[in-house]
Write a structure and sequence with these properties.
By secondary structure, this protein is mostly helical. It is about 75% helix and about 0% strand. The two termini are about 20 Å apart. The structure holds zinc ion (2 copies). One zinc ion binds next to helix 2.
């Protein structure tokens, strides 16, 4: 399967040289989707239907709340809650009329299933997956076809531990044989260097809390713990596991 190439955003993210270029891209994509769902799409009947069916994960509902667009989020919540109530109503009515605990348990079981099913899926997480596949494919493609990109990549920190296996999966679709072998070896070597740098920095940071080092220089390691965690888990990623 081929994906649409996104060479400009991938080059831009590479040049930012953050902890992970895929995280940089995914954070931007996530913010775009949050804006999208709180923008004029709220008035689009097709989007409203999708929102009613799938909704968002807990983290993305919180992100939508934090974006301070009360009217848009109010509209989303209004129709989504109406839909939830429409689904629950028959069981709520049935439960009112039952006279045995056995029958009540059946109704409660159905209500529980419906409520649990509501938490499956997230429109923002699944859009992020689609964007990720395009970005990762483009990264591998550029690496395989553009020497300038390859040289620039080796000078950056590269990618995080969370995105490494995901990128390797996609690379197989973008690259063949010898290029794929080079890719596996070079990207892994880059990750190894990234680990070395992060460890060196975070270790130095821990040493700076010792009294005997109080006159030493921080060497830019004040936030090394944050960079280490970004490397460990990635900042820009889907929030709900599929
Ligand atoms: Zn990442
Ligand atoms: Zn989500």
């Amino acid at each position: 399967m081929k994906y649409k190439l996104e060479t400009i955003p991938v080059w831009d993210a590479l040049q930012e040289n953050n902890e992970c270029l895929l995280c940089t891209l995914m954070e931007k994509a996530e913010n775009r989707y949050i804006d999208y769902y709180l923008g004029s799409s709220v008035m689009n009947p097709e989007t409203r239907v999708q929102v009613n069916i799938t909704g968002f994960c807990h983290t993305h509902y919180q992100a939508l709340t934090m974006a301070s667009k009360p009217q848009a989020l109010g509209l989303i919540a209004d129709t989504h809650l109406q839909e939830t109530r429409r689904q629950l109503e028959p069981e709520i009515l049935r439960l009112k009329k039952v006279s045995t605990v056995k029958k009540a348990r059946t109704s409660i079981g159905k209500i529980m299933l419906l409520l649990k099913a509501r938490e499956n899926g997230c429109l923002i997480c699944s859009s992020m997956d689609t964007a990720f596949n395009r970005y990762a494919y483009t990264l591998a493609y550029l690496w395989g076809s553009d020497h300038e990109f390859r040289a620039a990549y080796t000078k950056t920190r590269g990618i995080c531990l969370h995105h490494f296996p995901l990128l390797m999966d996609i690379a197989e679709k973008a690259l063949q044989k010898q290029t794929l072998l080079d890719f596996y070896q070079t990207i892994t070597e880059n990750l190894d260097k990234h680990l070395d740098t992060a460890l060196e920095e975070v270790h130095w940071m821990t040493q700076m809390f010792k009294s005997e080092n109080r006159d030493k220089e921080w060497r830019g390691c004040q936030n090394a713990h944050e960079r280490a965690i970004d490397l460990e888990t990635g900042r820009g990623r889907r929030k709900q596991e599929p």
